[in-house]
Amino acid sequence: MLANAQVLLFLVLALVLFGIEAWALIDCARRPAGAFLAAGKRTKNFWLVLTAAAAVVGFIAVPPPLGLGLLGGGFLQFFAVIPAGVYLADVRPAVSNYGGGRRPPRSGGGGW
């Protein structure tokens, strides 16, 4: 019973980490390339490669019920989430001022 709980906990943790990596990759892909340079950050291609590599490692490390579970223990998955975390904590707020993400709600016209 305890082994099943451990497997379930590891699966949930792996899925959360993969979700963070996928979120960083999708957000990075949606931002315009000029926003990265305007914000004084590395290029968009640099962050796309890092977040894509993190997402691939994260997907490969998801345990067998839902993924491949090839990285044995998922220790590399914890290292793979670091670039995604750096992107989400540092780069994303800096680039979000330059568009490409969510659009602000339209003002005026229509409504109740």
Automatic annotation (TrEMBL):
Keywords: Membrane, Transmembrane, Transmembrane helix
The keyword Membrane belongs to this UniProt entry's keyword annotation: yes
Cited InterPro entries: DUF2516
Transmembrane segments: 6-26, 46-62, 68-89
Keyword Transmembrane helix part of the UniProt annotation: yes
Domain of life of the native organism: Bacteria
Protein name: DUF2516 family protein
Native species: Georgenia yuyongxinii
